[in-house]
Amino acid sequence: AALGPRAGRPTLAPLQDTMVPEARVELDAGLDLLRTSRAQTDLQRARQHFERAVELDAGYAAAHAALGNVLVLVSGLGMRPALEVLPLAGTSARRAVAIDPTLAAAWQALAHVQTHDWDWAAAEQSYRKALEFNPKSEAVLLDLALVYELEGKTEEAIQTYQRLLAVNA
């Protein structure tokens, strides 16, 4: 659950990161949609769930991270123009990091935005930060390896792919 409230935790973990149960319900509903579908209507519904979670609890880092991630996905799939949604994704990701700098999903969201901004060095740093808090995240390891490839860091990419394989072993 790369987009989960805390990477590595089950989706229905006890409420530890929000005091607003309704916000957690909205976050989980959006995450459930993302686990099962990438259809345009489901991505839009997930976005609405995340936006509602942020409205219910503006200090909910996991909701901001999920919103940032889904906005990057919406842009990457060409559903909305990048110039429209990537700035919003960046704002959400930076808020998530500011609220909870130990949240792997927040750093992952920020790295996704930085990757789409073609800022490989910043994306690398953010993915590495995400791995500090969730060292076995397959999604982050894969994304970091790809960034290393884009940067021409072949040895680092190979080592990261090997680390990814070890997680799956």
3D architecture notes:
The structure is a single chain. By secondary structure, the chain is mainly α. Helix content is 73%, strand content 0%. It is built from eight helices and no strands. It has helices spanning 21-36, 40-56, 61-76, 82-99, 104-116, 120-133, 138-151, 154-168.
Summarize the helices and strands and which ones pair or pack.
Layout: H1 21-36, H2 40-56, H3 61-76, H4 82-99, H5 104-116, H6 120-133, H7 138-151, H8 154-168
Helix pairs in contact: 1-2, 2-3, 3-4, 3-5, 4-5, 5-6, 6-7, 7-8
- The count of β-strands is 0
- Detail the poorly predicted runs: 1-15
Strand content: under 5%
Give the helix tally. Answer: 8
Average pLDDT rating = 87
Name the shape in a single word: globular
Strand count, sense and barrel status of the largest sheet are: none
Query: How helix-rich are the residues, as a percent range?
Result: over 70%
Helix/sheet category: mainly alpha
Describe the oligomeric state of these chains in a short phrase: single chain
Order of helices and strands: HHHHHHHH
Q: Radius of gyration from the CA trace?
A: 15 Å
How widely separated are the two ends?
A: 18 Å
Quick structural summary:
The chain has helices at residues 21-36, 40-56, 61-76, 82-99, 104-116, 120-133, 138-151, 154-168. The protein is an all-alpha fold.
Question: Notable features of this structure?
Answer:
169 residues, mainly alpha, globular
